[in-house]
Amino acid sequence: MSLRTIRILLWLPLVGFLIVLGLVLSGLIKPHDTSVRSQMVGKPLPAFALRSARPGQPPLASASFADGKVRLVNIFASWCVPCVVEMPQLAQLKQAGVVIEGIASRDKPADSLAFLQRNGDPYDRIGDDSTSAVQIAIGSSGVPETYVVDGKGIIRAQHIGPIQPQDVADILAAVKDAR
Amino acid sequence: MRRWIVLALLLAPAPLWADPTLAPEPLSYTQLPDPRQEAAAQALMQTIRCVVCQGQSIADSDADLAGDMRALVRQRIAAGEKPEAIRAWLVQRYGRWVSYTPPVDALTWPLWAAPILLLCVGGLMAGTAFKRRRR
């Protein structure tokens, strides 16, 4: 090896170090997003028919979504603390004229109803998804999650985590887009 | 005081916030009676990623959603569905990310080719190093 190549090769460790430094810095500036987005956005709702969590009420069936009305589908649970956070925002959306259907994940109907009594009930209908079957079919990875479903029964948008006050405008815009 | 409560809540692990009271699905913790079907379900469950405890398979994870996914896999296997069809169904919902066995295609071939290429490069380097020493 000539002296010149050795001189060039001596820079390699520094270059390697700078690459690693760049990776670390980029991770600090923009942390890795671990939320799992549903691949069902843009596709029709999976077929389901959940019995109602409210006694004597009609079931929540996917077929009933194709009636021209845009809806929100909100997956919630009585055991889910962040779900309490979004209840005022759901009430606000309901007041703005948005129809919200609830899917109670892994819950006893009595617990779901007690939860809604404490925190307000924004739901038109509530499906009892005691085995998470619909939650999995829809591609949801946790509670709470909210989906915008258009009048043809096609999922148009997904919101992961509780709807915070600053998210309400985005959700309303997504509902308007789906019309 | 309020600051300390918020801090305590932030430090509390997320699973503490979320604990369903409903008993788990029977099939999430019970094997199928037919050993061949159970083996097929086990093999599939070990290559499906848990969407809650990301990095664990649904066979390893104690998350409730993983339990429900195990129950779903066992029910479908018991109903005679092929494991690869169940995998495809889950990939359709959660993306390719959910499967631990990446297929070989236009996007993933470097993943499979890289070890072979690196082995060849290593072999070449070792070969030249040995040759030099012999001289």
Give the ordered list of helices and strands of chain B. HHHHHH
Q: Tell me the CATH superfamily of the largest domain in chain A.
A: Glutaredoxin
Question: CATH homologous superfamily of the largest domain in chain B - what is it?
Answer: Cytochrome C biogenesis protein
What is the count of DSSP helices of chain B, taking H or I runs of 4+ residues?
6
* Total helical elements of chain A: 6
Q: Which regions of chain A contain 5 or more consecutive residues with pLDDT less than 50?
A: none
Q: Any idea of the CATH class of the largest domain in chain B?
A: Mainly Alpha
Rough shape of chain A?
Answer: elongated
Task: Give an overview of the whole structure.
- The complex is a heterodimer of chains A (179) and B (135).
- With 179 residues, chain A is of the alpha/beta class.
- Chain A has 2 domains: 32 residues; 130 residues, 3-Layer(aba) Sandwich (Glutaredoxin).
- Chain A is 37% helix and 18% strand.
- Chain A has a 5-stranded mixed β-sheet with strand order 5-4-3-6-7. A two-stranded antiparallel sheet of chain A has the order 1-2.
- In chain A, a hairpin with a 5-residue loop joins strand 6 and strand 7.
- The mean pLDDT of chain A is 94.
- Chain B is mainly α.
- Chain B folds into 2 domains: 100 residues, Helicase, Ruva Protein, domain 3, CATH 1.10.8; 32 residues.
- Chain B is built from 6 helices and no strands.
- The longest helix of chain B is centred in the last third of the chain and has 26 residues.
- Chain B starts with a helix and ends with a helix.
- At the A-B interface, helix 5 of A face helix 4 and helix 5 of B.
